Amino acid sequence: MSDAEAQSHPCLIITLYYLGHEVLKREIFGNDVRIAHFPSSHGTTGSLGLVGIERIALPKPPPSLFTGRKEQAFASLLPYMEKGVMLASTKLGIYAKRFCQARVFWTGPHTSESGPHKLECTDHPVMLFSRQAFQQELAVFSQSGGAPPRCGVTLCFGEELSDTDDLSSKLITVQVPSRPCLFKTLQPLVTRRPWIKI
C-alpha cells in the first residue's frame, strides 16, 4: 500500500458507549488521541499542551439514558476522567497510557495473563494490541480457516471489565478495532476464500 493510500485510512476508529448505547464514533487519522472529560470552561478542542494530538470529549448522555443510581454514578465518575486516556497507533500495535484518576480496565486478544486487566498510571504506555501477533494468527487462519483473529480492544472507565461481561451494564466503554489490519489484510483473504466467515 502506498503512502497516499495509507493516509486515506484512519489510524484508529474510536466508538464510545454509555450502558452499551453508542454515543460517539470518530475516525482518527493521526497516530494519537486522548479521550477524556473536558469541563465546559476548557472547551472540546485543543491539545492539552500536546501538539498534534486529537481530543475526544466524553459527550453528554442522551436524555433518560441514565436514571437513579446510574445517573449519580456517571456524574461522580466524570471529574475523575478529566485527564483521560491516550491511545496511540504504531507499526507495532495499539498502545494506551492512563492519565486520569479513574480506574481503567481493558480486554484484548494479545495478553498472556488472566483478567481483569487494569491500566495503571505509569511512565510507559501499555501495548493493548500486537500487530505481530495478529499477523501470526492471520497466517494460521489463512491456512486452516476457522474463527478469524480478533482485531481490536475494549476499555472500560471506572469499572472492572472481563471478556464475558455485558457491556450494557457498564457506564462508559470504548471499543477500538484495529480497522486498518482488518480491512487491508483480512477482507481480501475472505474474498479469495468465500467459505470463510468474518
UniProtKB/TrEMBL annotation:
Give every Interferon regulatory factor-3 domain span.
Answer: 9-187
User: Short name of one Pfam family for this protein?
Assistant: IRF-3
SMART domains named among the record's database cross-references: IRF-3
For molecular function, the Gene Ontology terms on record are: DNA-binding transcription factor activity, RNA polymerase II-specific; RNA polymerase II cis-regulatory region sequence-specific DNA binding
Q: Name one GO biological process term.
A: immune system process
Q: Name one GO cellular component term.
A: nucleus
Task: Report what the protein is called.
Answer: Interferon regulatory factor-3 domain-containing protein
- What broad taxonomic lineage does this protein's source fall under? Eukaryota, Metazoa, Chordata, Craniata, Vertebrata
